Every structure is written in structure tokens, then in C-alpha cells.
Amino acid sequence: MRRRAWWGGLALVLILGLLGAGCGLTRSVEEYFSAQDSGLRKRLVVVPFTSGLAKLAPRARAWERGTRRELAREGGLVLVDYSRLAAAMQRVPDRVKDRQQRMVWAGRSLGLNAILHGQITDLSLHRRLTGIWGFRDNTPFLGLEVDLSLLDTASGTVIARQSHRAEVEISDVLAQGIRMGSPPPAKLVDELVAKQVKHTRRWVVRAVASQPWAGFVLKVKGKRVLTTVGRDTGLPLGAMLTVYGWGERIRTGAGTLIHLPGAPVATLRLDQLGPRTAWATVVDAREKPLRLLPGMLIRAR
Prior knowledge:
CATH architecture of the largest domain: 3-Layer(aba) Sandwich
Largest sheet: 6 strands, mixed
Shape: elongated
Oligomer: single chain
Radius of gyration: 22 Å
Number of helices: 7
Structural class: alpha+beta
Number of domains: 2
């Protein structure tokens, strides 16, 4: 009953968030996730980064490669190659038109916790006052601005979003040349990309750490359940899991589809672990006849 009440409370928070339009809803979901941390390893996909400026497309790819390289070193993350997500999206039914929702469906089949998006939005000069009062200079800075977002597959919502500007101080002569149409020196742009890589790693690690770990049902054979749990998640044989039924799906005014969790329907025990999947046995069913379906949410107990 406590779990049912807890999930009901979460559903209420999300529904109340709908009354506050898109950003209010996102804020409510972020507040919920900020209090959660299971400590289990979580799977993450980095979607190819893009640029709103065509000339910076190579920089977006360099930023993405650097980000993947840095995140692969994090102990609490399992980095899944984007090609696996792209292949899984091809298997999503055609009736699911929205690209974000197709990612959510595909991400669940891979046991993903989160999907990271990044886009370069600006490369420009900016001046600001530096130094102490009475000796202040209007110093020029070259800045690279990016947008980041993290999609949670369990809820289907973007649970974290940020715009970040990395800057490097430049000379007045160089600033004047850029204003007259000269391209910024490649070395400086590379430095800005490196700064964004470091920032992105820190931001992602914090955001993913605040998510509760999630797994999903893949297949059901009687009382045997194939799950997205694997050795890579850190769960041992004998671990107990709770499966949650389908909750409501609510579309916000901004068009986002929220997957609300249902009530607990079964308890599983892991008894056969593979690298990325595991078989579990139903040890307790809340309702009879038991209905377990692919895509249902799993939480560690």
C-alpha cells in the first residue's frame, strides 16, 4: 500500500504540473528526479550532436566525440552506442510518429535510462567589464553556446535542459578582426569545444545520478520474465525487482507525452544474468490473472 500511495503521489505531482504549462511540468519532473539515486549503473545513449550553424557542424561532431570519450570513463554509466538505438527505432510501430516518443519506445527495449541531445547554437563575441573598480576594462570574449537536454525513457520526459556558454578572453585586435569578418582562430574554437566537453560530462553525470534506476520487461513465458537487467547494471543474482503496470499517458499543452507509472503488479527474483539482459522468476503477483507485458517498468527493491 505504501508503494501504491507513493506512485499515486508522483502521479499527482505530474498532473498538477500540467496546469503550469510546459516549463512548469518539466520543473515538477526535475524536482522528483533530483531526490532519487539508486547507485546502480545506468545506461545512456549520446545522440549525434548537431549545430544550428552549418559551418560549425564539424565542431559539433568533435564535441560529441569528446563527450562520449569522457562519459565512457564514468563508473556509474554504461554508454550504449547510438547505432543500437537507431536500429531499435526502426522496429517501433509506424503509428508512433513523434521522434521523441520513438526514442522512448526504442530506449525501453534497450534498457536505457537516459538519452542525451546536444546542439551548438552560437559562436560570437561578447564584451564585459573586468578588473577592480576604477581599473576596469571592457574586455572581449569569444564564446561558444550550446543547448543540452536529457530524455528519461521511464517517464518519456526531458528531465534536464540547459543552455551553456563557454568563453575565452581575446585581444582587442583579434576581436576587431572577427567583427570585420575574419573567422575566429581554429585553436581558440578548439579550446571552447574542449571546455564544453568538460562541462557536458559534469552536467550529465549530475543529472543521471539524480535519476532512479529503471529496467523494463522484454518477454514473458509463464512465470519467467526476460528483462533489460544485465551484469552491466550491477544487480546480483537473487536481487528482487518490482514490476509496475501501465499508468495513464497524458499529453501536455506543449505536446509532450508523459508516461505515468501504474501500481506494482509483481515481484521478480533475478536467477540468470547475461551481459545486457537477465531472466527472472515471478515470486509474487499482486493480481490474478497476472498480466505482464513488454515495456513495463521495473525498479530495484
